[in-house]
Amino acid sequence: MNVEHYQAKTIESKWQEIWDKSDIYSFDSETKSDKRFYSLVMFPYPSGNLHMGHMRVYTISDVISRHKRMLGYQVLNPMGFDAFGLPAENAAIENNTHPAVWTETNIAYMRDQQLKRMGTSYDWSREVVSCRADYYKWTQFIFLKLYEKGLAYQKEAPVNWCPDCNTVLANEQVEDGMCWRHGQTPVNKRMMKQWFLRITDYAEELLQDLNKLEHWPESVKTMQRNWIGKSVGAEIDFPLCGAVRVEGSKAITVYTTRPDTIYGVTYMVLAPEHKLVQELTTDENKEAIKAYIKDASSKTEIERTAEGQKKTGCFTGAYCTNPYTGEKIPVWIADYALVDYGTGAVMAVPAHDERDWEFAQEFGLEIKEVIQSEAVVGEGSKAQGGENEDDTALQPYSPRAMTGPGVIINSNEFNGLDNEAAKSKIVEHGLKSGFARSTIKYRLRDWLISRQRYWGCPIPLAQTEDGELVQIPYESLPVELPTEIDFSAAKAMGGSVLENSPDWFNITLANGRKAKRITDTLDTFICSSWYFMRYPDALNTDKPFDKSKVFPVDQYVGGVEHAILHLLYARFFTKALRDCDMLDFDEPFVRLLSQGMVVKYSEKDGKITKMSKSKGNVVGTNDFFDEFGADAARLFILFAAPVDAEVEWVEEGAQGQYRFINRVWRLFKNYASVFENRENYDFADFAKLTKDNQDLVRALHSALKAITEDLDPNRNGFNTSVARMTEFVNAAYKYFNAHDQESLTAEDSAVLATLFRQFILLISPFTPHLAEELWHKYILHSDEPDLVNSVHRQSWPVFEPSYLEQNTFNLVLQIKGKKVDVVEVSKELSKEQLEGFALANDKLQKRLQGLEIKKIIVIPNKLVNVVAV
RNA sequence: GCCGGUGUGGCGGAAUUGGUAGACGCAACAGACUUAAAAUCUGUUGGGAUUUUUUCCCGUGCCAGUUCAAGUCUGGCCACCGGUACCA
Asked: Which distant-in-sequence residues (6+ apart) come within 8 Å of A150 by Cβ?
């Protein structure tokens, strides 16, 4: 490395140490609400090593935080670690270190060797580490509050089991039938007694309040809406027929969104796990049904759906009655009916439902049409009715199920109705007769929160010998994890090693009764569902946080991979804790920014993919920092693409930003003398400056204006901000090539000193180290750090609009919208004058020869367009 | 299948309200400096034709349309990416 170059490593580590010892980035909790700004980034899992992919989110959030500080806000910009979870436990099993040791080692490295080296501006005094007892004590406290409120409960249910995690997973943690942590591992369904949170109680509010989140990306809101999956339909009771009698339940209740097809029901499908199956199956079908259920339960989600459209099922021998028609309907079981959606029973209408149609084809069941497509009615005539359905509705009737709109047929008194209108009429009829009611269902399921693992927050409950669940008293919290654990045994047994610690799980209650602690621990998403509430009141020893001190995050930055998981859970927690009287707001994150991934070419895959260890395309932070510095990495990551798009890490591109830093560095060095003895940075009347000086002032102020606008939270144009800085530096070099240091006049010096001072402020959120170094060296003239006057305590510079006003503009001359010439003209000219000026133009005249002018359009300050043929 | 999103030079991308397409960077090429190289500074760089310091044509995935004017608006295709998927 050339010694003439900017010594990034030395300079950066110098300032990092100085900032670290100061309180320059600390947040004052007493700040009034209109002067504070909560800037947050999703806290990381301490896996031990951050790469450029991680760096992106911290950089974006840091620029926002620093800029807000300069705008006069007290910024709460905290950091912590989402520190419970499987990798620590797996590492412990492999090399017999305790998960706590492994985790704390990683945290120390990531905090001190990586996050701080990125030039971030966190208030570390508020650090939150979810695996420490002083944090999970409050996770347990919150769990008990939810439990008391009836929001936490235990039930036997079919749950997702990941054989690699050796534990159950929530629905949200299953992706395409695979474990979210083990992309190659299919999860299987098991019946298990597990703990759940009643997130479904909040389904409607979670859905409705998405409309309040006007500063969230539309895509994330759409994903949440789809996940919640509200559907409006009806429940209809189909009484069982005489041959089979089931005590207590004389009917099968189905849920349907298509009550309009009720006359087309030709069979009934129950999920294999439906509770009526055993009872209503006739003796001669018992064997077959038993075999089918066994077969269905042994299949993974993947196997069930991998067979594509081929439907399987088994007849129970039982029949029920369609309450609308009195028809006798055969009852089948099939695994395409899901036990945990709706009522677990489906009224099958093969004529108008794809899946039912396939099933009916497979087993030769009756297909009865009850809706006639408009296509048939219309005979292909386009002038059919005033409906907005046009050509698409005129497709000939498909040999498969007809799922589109149409007119009701074969349905007694409902014949002739539009099928949409028929829905409510039919439900209304059933409601009067007592066998139907309109219902709303959600796709969202309750959140499964218990995990059969050691390294998680213990559930603060115990079970007495006679099965009663009791809370651990608040004053006894935290229930700490036992530390004497033999992890070598854990591998063999699978599941939670807590079951191996009788000293821990056998307890005696205050009243002398014996009890056993719950050995499951909490899903780590519980820990991350409230961590952002802890930061504003991080040192509270009486409760998780004081209601009066917590406030919603103003700007949250994180990856889209949490669009549903963390972001939905955190919203739910906020609402639930509000109902526990612990909070007084409804939504945790006012503004959300989902940054794109950082990708790189992977030799292994032969394509450009997300950075990951397994793809072998990870670029670590420290090697690059050592050579080119964090500021260069920050600039590149911000510059290479818009925030929400992918960034491809290209080493040459990142080095290009180091080149930029050097250009800035050299520029200041070349003009060092202008900063001598300068108390007051300002220059005389702009109008009286030389043209070169005016141009440079204009260059800075247009950059200032553009960057100020780019940093608006509705825009987040970090990439263009960097381009604007570069443009100013290019302009400054142009100036330098015309005016070297020796040739400067007093006016030139005043202009340069003023502009360069503002330029440092301008780049300070982006390149905090470079800015602080330049600030100290050239502005403060201080060899000693002076953090009272640090560049990071300065105000954001204000651009002066009058500097940008010019009395001329580039007039574009067009013929029929095609550019012919561009000429510089005065802004004073009237429309008529502009027109006259345009017509006098040689190029235009030449092109107009032989043409007849039809019309002339004059847009002031823009163009003249001559329409001629 | 359904729901989102994206298509602009060799590459990443810019163009905020329809009004000069290609800002800024990377890569490449050339000049200056140097014994030389690196570094640096300065240029050139969408494609094509041409009478080659000139003039013209084409050009924002494809096809139509609206408009004096379309990367931008409308309709229809195509491709890619992401989410979701037997949710009755």
From this structure: A198
C-alpha–C-alpha distance, residues A613 and A620, integer Å: 11
User: Residue A54 CA to B6 C1' — how many Å?
Assistant: 24
- The span from the CA of A426 to the CA of A52, in Å, is 59
End-to-end CA distance of chain A: 64
Prediction pTM value = 0.92
Q: Which two tokens stand for residue A275?
A: 């509770």
Residue A830 CA to residue A852 CA, distance in Å, equals 24
User: Which nucleotides of chain B does any protein CB come within 7 A of?
Assistant: 3-5, 12-16, 19-21, 23-27, 38-43, 56, 68-70, 82-88
Locate A435 and state its tokens.
Answer: 């066998």
- Paired tokens of A383: 């002038």
Helix, coil or strand: residue A531: helix
Segment A91-103, tens digit of pLDDT: 888 888 899 999 9
Q: Residue A869: is it exposed, middle or buried by C-beta count within 10 angstroms (0-12/13-18/19+)?
A: exposed
Contact partners, residue A865, CB within 8 Å, separation at least 6: A814, A815, A816, A817, A856, A857, A858, A859
Buried b (16+ CB within 10 A) or exposed e, A24-40: bbbbeeeeeeeebbbbb
pLDDT bracket for residue A314 (50, 70, 90) = very high
- pLDDT tens sequence across A14-56: 999 999 999 999 999 888 988 999 999 999 999 999 999 999 9
The nucleotide lying nearest A707 (C-alpha to C1') is: B16
Measured CA to CA in angstroms, residue A492 lies from A84, A93, A487, A495, A604 at distances of: 22, 10, 9, 9, 33
Pairing of strands A328-333, A314-321: antiparallel
Residue with CA nearest C1' of nucleotide B40: A663
CA A631 → CA A316, A699, A722, A756, distances in Å? 70, 23, 12, 19
What is the C-alpha separation between A833 and A822, in angstroms, rounded? 16
The token pair that represents A821 in the structure block: 């010439």
User: What interface predicted TM-score (ipTM) does this complex get?
Assistant: 0.95
Nucleotide nearest A255, from its CA to each C1': B88
State which residue has its Cα closest to the C1' atom of B84.
A226
Residues 6+ apart with CB under 8 A from A419: A260, A261, A371, A405, A406, A407, A408
Asked if A37 and A763 touch (Cβ cutoff 8 Å), the reply is: no
Cβ neighbourhood burial of A443 (10 Å; 0-12, 13-18, 19+): middle
Q: For chain A, what percentages of helix, strand and coil (3-state, to nearest 5) are there?
A: 45, 20, 35
Q: What is the C-alpha R_g of chain A?
A: 35
Please choose, from the candidates A518, A522, A568, the residue with its C-alpha nearest in 3D space to the C-alpha of residue A167: A522
Q: Model confidence over A225-241: pLDDT tens digits? A: 999 999 999 999 999 98
* CA angle at A483 for the pair A78 and A43, rounded to the nearest 5°: 20
Strand runs (DSSP E) across A300-374, as ranges? 314-321, 328-333, 345-348, 371-373
Residue A168 and residue A451 in contact, taking contact as beta carbons nearer than 8 Å = yes
